[in-house]
Structures are given as structure tokens and as C-alpha cells.
Amino acid sequence: MRRGMILARGAAIAAASLCLAAAEPADSPVNVPEPPGLYTGPQRGYTPPTLKGAQVVDGEQVAKLLEGPVKPVLIDVAMREKKPANFPEGRLWLPVHPSIPGAVWLPNAGAVPLAPEREALFYARVESLTGGDKAKPIVVFCHVECWGSWNAGKRLVEKGYTGVHWFPLGVEGWQDEHETKTITEDAEWKRGEVAER
Amino acid sequence: MRPTFAAFPLAVGLTLSAAALGAAPAAYAAGASDTDQERNARWQEIAKSIFGDRTISPTDTLVKLDAPKRAEDAALVPITLTMPDRDKIKAVSLIIDDNPAPYAAKFEFGPAADTNELKLRVRVNNYTDMHAVVETTDGKLYEAKQFVKASGGCSAPMGMSDEEAMKGMGDMRMKFADAQPGKPVEATLMIRHPNFSGMQMNQVTRDYTPARYIDKLTVSAGDQKIFTMTGDISIASNPVINFGFKPDGKPIQVAASDNQGGSWTKSFTAPSPTN
Questions:
Q1: Record keywords: Signal included (chain B) (predicted)?
Q2: Option in A46, A94, A169 nearest B12 (CB)
């Protein structure tokens, strides 16, 4: 039985690698390998169990960090809900974004590609939020099975941040056990985007 | 092939099953937590924008709202509305508080309706309260509430091309439960329609598929209305609606239209009681 499982895992790894080569979502949650750089496929999909250079955490560990002496910077990179272009006038449209209390919402900061100005602003925001301390604990997250937080974490690791924690279960994993708070988009992040338009 | 998103709530479920098996999470058991207060404030905001300043009283009897506590598929969450007091019910609205378009559906009942049980399937975007609000024939509003755990249902892609999803759009089928003399009949209406939410991204082109959803659905028994539904992007693709009606031997007429000008009608032969 164990042998069968190992074989099955091997097959899943092979299948997942093939998918990644074509930048398509993996079709199984089992052992999705880490891409060498940023992940360029759609944000929605199975993610790897690891992020080299970062610590993978669950909701309990995030809660512990928050209770600890050095408060982590919480960075939520979930995409904002896009109002359909042809959504009728007069119908109720009222998007809401519950998150981990205290999180800073930088929507879609895990996008690939990210415009150079946006990427620069992302680094600038993180630098400001960490007070320039590259060892400061940072928790990056979005939703469960979302590559956005993986990519955002990868960007920070590559930038030399050593306290990066990736929380792959994201908002859903958090709200199963803990309080959420409705947050709005980081003002500077939003301003930067408006300026681009 | 199952689209990836379908496993969203499932994956959380598996990962957190140990926690889920325990007592109810403290956050929701504690009563007036911050989260609860936020949810309540949001409901007040939504209720005001839909019902204005009208008072909405809680009810345990006029309407009961049943939904899975944790949905297996956030894009296909089954909802049952139970309204046994047929003569008192004029309309019912279903609101999914934390969906970006919270007002999922409104059903206005006609003389041929039996309101006892109404079922439909919806998309749920976040962990959310859901509200069913009935309007009684004396013009009062009553609400029932249920909390549902599901995520990503509005933006979940269908797992097939748009063309494939639109094949046979507007085709309808209806199934009837056995008719018994003098009793209402239960019917299931199935409409082939992608009900695109406008929030679904084509995984290959990365474009958003424009919203295309059934916004009006009228079902009648002969010339007597059973219900008219006003729909929104929160109704799941390929809508399935279970409803009850009072048969009088006349055919059941269905007229559906969508927000892009599509319209379809079909007539079904209702079963006659065998005795």
C-alpha cells in the first residue's frame, strides 16, 4: 500500500511538472513543485507545500506570531472583486473584503507580470511597513489555493527579506478559527494605481 | 474535469478538519464579537438599500432557510426555503450578505403557487450570513438567517470554454413528483444557461467573461402565475429550481430571459392526479 502511494505521488509530481512547464494549473493538490522563479500561470490553482526562503505557516502559527513580542506585518494580496463591465445600473453591488485584523491590503501584488512601477511601489510599501528591517516577520496571504501570496512571498524573499511567512490557507484558513475584520485597500497602493490609469 | 476552484472549500475542510470537528469556533460562539457586529452592520446596510426603512422582524416559522454549514462547492450551494403558511406569503428574497452582488434572487408568488418548499442553487463568495426575507400578504417583512462557509463561488470558472458553456442555452426540462388528488405538486425546473457572473476569468485568455445571467423567470400554471423570479449573478450556472404548485390540469408555462436579451419559453404538461 505504501509503495502504491509513493508511486501515485510520483505520478502526481510528474503530472504537476508537466502542467507547470506549460504554465497551467496543476490538476492535483499533491506535491505541486515550486517553480524556479515567480509563477506565471493563473492565480487560482493548487500551490506548492513550500516557498524556499520563507516559512510556511498555518492559522495557529499566525495567531501565535500576532500574540508574540514582535508583531508581524500582515500583507494581504487578494485580488479585489471586479465589477462586471455590463453589471446593470441599479442592481446592488457592494463588495466586501474580510481579512485578518490589522492586515494591509495590497490587492493583486502577487500578479505576474506586475508593472515595474507597481512592483517598485510594492517594495516601497513593504519597506515602509517593516521600518526598513529586513528581518522583521512578515506574513503574506490571499485566499486558499491562490498563487498571489506565493508570488508576493517569493518577491520578498528575493529582495532579501528573511522573516517571510507564507500563509497558504489565507483568509479562509484564518476565519475558520479567528475573528476577521473588513479592510479597505491600502491608500498608497490605490493611489499608485489611479495615477497609472 | 473538475475545475480547480471546486476543491477550495474542500481543501480548507481537509486541512482544518481537526479544528472543525471540535466545538464551534469561539469567534462565532461568543455572541457579539467584532466579526458578528460587522456582519450585523453589513446586513443593516444591505437591508436598508433593498427594503428602505421598513422593519424586518425575525421569524422561526414564516420562512426557514437551510443551507450547508460548509459547502462542498462554492459555485453550487444548495438552498432550501421553507414557507408552510402559503396564504400569508407574498414574496421571498434571498440575500447572500458578503457576495459582491448580495441580492441573489426575489420570488414573487402567484395564486397557483405552493410555497411550502422552494429550492435553488447559488454561488457563495465568502464566508457569509445569508438572509431570507419574506413579505407577507399584509405587507410585513420577516427574516431568517443562516451562516455558510464557502469561498470563491462567484469567480469560479466553469471548467470549460464559454462556447461549450453556452451550448443549448435556454433548453429547459421539468420533472414532476407524483400527483395526488387535492395536493400541491412538486416540480423541478432545469434551465441550461451558464449564468456567467461576469467575475469569472477565462483561465487561458485571462479575460473576464461578461455577465450573462437569467434576470427574469416566470412560471405559470395555465394563466395562473406560480412565481416570477428576479435573478442575479449569484444564481449558479444551469439553474435548477424546485417549487410547488396547485395543479388544475393546465400546462406549466415557463418564460425566461437574460440580461443580454436572450429569451426562451417552454410549455410542460402537468401531471394529473391518478385516483
A1: yes
A2: A169
Q: Is residue B109 a part of any domain in this protein?
A: yes
Between CA A49 and CA B258 the distance in angstroms is 43
Say yes or no: A67 and A15 in one domain. no
Complex-level ipTM beyond the 0.90 threshold? no
B213, with CB counted inside 10 A (0-12, 13-18, 19+), is buried
State how beta strands B128-136 and B141-148 pair. antiparallel
Q: How many CA atoms lie within 13 A of A51 on its CB side?
A: 29
Sheet hosting strand B240-245, strand order edge to edge: B64-66, B77-82, B113-122, B240-245, B185-191, B172-176
* Number of neighbours of residue B167 by Cβ within 10 angstroms: 11
Among A93, A98, A169, the residue with its CB nearest the CB of B101 is A93
Considering the domain architecture, whether residues A68 and A106 belong to the same structural domain is answered as: yes
- Which chain A residues in 57-116 lie under 8 Å from chain B, judged by CB atoms? 58-59, 81-88, 91-96, 98, 101
Whether residues A15 and A79 share a domain: the answer is no
Q: Cβ atoms within 10 A of the Cβ of A191, count?
A: 12
List the CATH number of the domain containing A89: 3.40.250.10
CATH code, domain with B111:
2.60.40.2470
Same domain, yes or no: A49 and A146: yes
pTM of the model: 0.85
User: Which residue in chain A is spatially nearest to B33 when comparing CA positions?
Assistant: A179
Residue B186's domain comprises 4-18+58-268
B20: helix, coil or strand? helix
User: What total of structural domains would you count in chain B?
Assistant: 1
pLDDT digits (tens, 9 = 90+) for A61-80: 999 999 999 999 999 999 99
Which residues constitute the domain of residue A18?
1-33
Residues in chain B with pLDDT values less than 70 = 1-32, 273-275
Do A93 and A156 fall into the same domain? yes
Shared domain for A5 and A48, answered yes or no, is no
Tens-place pLDDT, residues B20-57 = 333 334 334 445 678 889 999 999 999 999 999 999 99
Three-state SS at B64: strand
Record the cell numbers describing residue A14, joined without a space.
510528474
User: Is residue B222 one of the residues assigned to a domain?
Assistant: yes
